[in-house]
Amino acid sequence: MSKNLHTPSEGSVLKDLKEEMETTTGTTYITSFASNIHRIQTILTAARDLNRFVIPYGRSMLKYIETAVEIGILDDFGIVKDAEDKSIKRQKVVLLSGSQGEFRGTVRRVVSRQDKKFKLKEDDKFIFSSKAIPGNEKKLAMLYNDIIEQGAQLITANEKHIHVSGHPGREDLKVVYENFKPTHSFPIHGESLFLKAHVDFVLNEKLSENSEMMLNGDSINIAKEIKLKKTQDQIEPVIYHGADIILERERVSERRKLATQGSILVSFSKESVQKFKPSCEVTLMGLPTIVDNEVNDFKIYVSQLIKDNKNKTLDEKKEEIRIATRRFFGERLGYRPVAIVHIC
């Protein structure tokens, strides 16, 4: 639920979007949520009025538009063209997915000059017909900087009325409740702070006889009576990676350490450890190249360490080497990398 009393109509953004397209001398790049079919329709309407072709770009944008046209809830006015169409010479509108700066998103690819079809030019304009979802502000700020540094013009919802929220205001919600007159209300989707505010709003305004906040894992039993069943144990989020394989939380923590600290792999053979002059292989990953010059000194250092601990077990030696490796490189780097030791 929005904190505002009313959410402006989608139709209210047409005027500014149209003006921004009309004043672009080059290509107009526009990004929005691909699932916001109403916004896509507004953009298509503005482009039609200006006699400009629209090129949807990005897998999700293409899929949503194709599906919406197929089921009859979106009119493309016959102005939608394929990115491969080389016949479009005049000003055009490129409608991009990836409005939140996603790592592999289309917006990021175009802005970072990694796209094969579209390159930003100084007479182009980049319009963000969306707002940052909390947590994405930094990613988007970096993209904004990149767009400006390339000489293109940047337009966001901070400068022009080109975005309205998809969340209803309090008075909008009130209209919905008064029309449907529910006996039970279970607000879902959103931060707990807003869910609680929604529940309080419903009860204070007497819009429903019952209103309760649901959390992850809760369920609703619908029989003669409608009851909310609270879960006893909160269910932890599950992360899927690659071929739908679950990645355990402790493994995510390991990846984070590897990404932020780098790693050092030290390998000995059992026979080498028993020798008077043990030898090892050292691999540095994700560390500044300046420490490459320290590897020979490190090998001497760790060889002496093994000699000094010759009466310890292999497992004890392995742990001594791991600690010493982190200490040795930590003194030179100012932080301690992840150290992995193999004696096999």
Report on this model:
- 38% of the residues lie in helices and 16% in strands.
- The model has no long low-confidence stretch (mean pLDDT 92).
- Helix 1 (14-22) packs across helix 2 (37-49) and helix 10 packs antiparallel against helix 11.
- A five-stranded parallel sheet has the order 2-3-1-4-5, sandwiched between helices.
- The chain has helices at residues 14-22, 37-49, 59-70, 106-111, 137-149, 170-180, 192-204, 249-261, 270-274, 295-308, 314-333, and strands at 28-31, 53-57, 92-96, 125-128, 153-155, 184-185, 210-211, 219-222, 226-229, 239-241, 245-247, 263-268, 281-285, 338-343.
- The protein has three domains: 10-155, Metallo-hydrolase/oxidoreductase (Rossmann fold); 170-229, no CATH class; 250-343, Ubiquitin-like (UB roll) (Roll).
- A hairpin with a 3-residue loop joins strand 10 (239-241) and strand 11 (245-247).
